[in-house]
Specification:
It is built from three helices and three strands, in the order βααββα. By secondary structure, the protein is of the alpha+beta class.
Length: about 60
């Protein structure tokens, strides 16, 4: 079985350990958060774009 190309908002919520998928809806409305695609009324997150977005969220600290 191959890995999925897209994740649902619920799968992303779990992956990012968010309290609610509504957080993602709020981010989409504000045009922030991970990139997403809409297929009709369905919102899906491309896994490669999500991985790239996650890497960009790294905050470097000074020693």
């Amino acid at each position: 079985m191959t890995a999925p190309e897209y994740l649902t908002p619920e799968e992303v919520r779990d992956r990012l350990r968010l309290r609610s998928a509504e957080t993602l809806a709020h981010w989409r409305n504000k045009r922030k958060g991970p990139p997403f695609r809409k297929f009709g009324s369905r919102v899906l997150y491309p896994i490669e774009a999500l991985l790239d977005w996650e890497r960009k969220q790294t905050v470097e600290t000074r020693a």
